[in-house]
Amino acid sequence: MTAVFALATSFLWGLADFGGGLLTRRIPALTVVVVSQTMAAAVLGAIVVATGGWQEAGPQLWFAVAAGVVGPAAMLCFYRALALGPMGVVSPLGSIGVAVPVGVGLVIGERPGLLQVAGIVVAVAGVVLAGGPQLRGAPVQRQAILLTLVAAFGFGSVMALIAEASSTVTGLFLALFVQRLSNIAVGGAALYVSVRRGATALPEDGGWRTIRSSLPALGFVGLADVAANGTYAMAAQQGPVTVAAVLASLYPVITALAARGVLKERLRLVQAAGAGLALFGTVLLAAG
After folding, report:
1. How far is CA 10 from CA 60, 144, 246, 283, in A?
2. CA atoms 62, 63, 66, 67: torsion sign
3. Residue 85 region, left (φ>0) first, then alpha (ψ -120 to 50), else beta?
4. Which of 29, 40, 152, 178 is 20 to 30 Å from 287 at the Cα level?
5. What would the pLDDT profile of 123-167 be if each residue is shown by its tens digit?
6. CA nearest neighbour of 177 among 76, 38, 71, 15
7. CA nearest 231: which of 8, 45, 67, 37?
């Protein structure tokens, strides 16, 4: 079940990233974060009330609060790094955040077998290549590399934190709800500061009309992100964190394939090879 939940996480995160990427072409990124997370929080709040999740409140929710604070901060660093570019370096480099939950798994005593170690190495290499690393061209600014590494550490930390935020299904709903509230608070504060500095919170083309017409897509992005966090937490609880983390980090492959299928973007040879390696690594992990 660990592999099933972790692969579901990759699928959901990959689609959420693809949808979020499309939306940020028309709507400011911070607005996408705040609106999508608010819609997800509304749905989760109803689920928490219906399931009696409030009874699961406890000190472990601080892990969810931390995940909700770290997540938006990491995303902002990542967006800034993408703006500095080149994207062909920044995107695959961001995937190394998987080292954080894998490291946590090793610290708590997990020792993957030889076949699983091989699967981890192959899968991570495939994820990096699937991002289409730019191996030549203009030099990369040090600030872009630093921001990408900070973002990667943040993404990995969110995976590790959310896995510790609950131990039951109803508790997981509550933890995800608390995480969303923290996301909204941090994202909303950043949006407020951005607007005060002269940026706009609304699309230049269409304003509120564009936001209203995009609500279904914004809701999908928010709920897919929530579901991905939930399936990852279940994957980490069902089996080795080292395996769950690597399989859950295959989402760049899904994003690349979605771009190929929907936007008709052609995969570079290195991306196709990376996708193949990632799938082969998945087989090794599942077999181990």
Report:
1. 25, 25, 10, 15
2. negative
3. left
4. 152
5. 777 766 765 655 555 445 677 778 878 888 888 898 889 888 887
6. 38
7. 8
Which amino acid is located at 95 in the chain? S
> Tens digit of pLDDT for each residue in 167-216?
788 889 999 999 999 999 999 999 999 999 988 888 888 888 999 999 99
Report which residue type is found at 83. A
DSSP assignments along 74-95, one per residue: HHHHHHHHHHHS-HHHHHHHGG
What's this model's pTM, rounded to 2 decimal places? 0.78
Q: Answer positive or negative: Cα dihedral of 223, 229, 233, 234.
A: positive
SS3 content of the chain, % helix, strand, coil (to 5): 80, 0, 20
Give 46's contacts (C-beta < 8 A, 6+ positions apart): none
Query: In which residue are the tokens 């091989």 written?
Result: 118
Residues 6+ apart with CB under 8 A from 112: 120, 240, 242, 243, 288
Tally of CB atoms within 10 A around 49: 12
> Tokens representing 125?
């290499």
What token pair was written down for 4? Answer: 């099933």
Residue type, 219: G
Sign of the alpha-carbon torsion through 264, 268, 270, 272: positive
By CB neighbour count within 10 A (0-12 exposed, 13-18 middle, 19+ buried), where does 29 fall?
A: buried
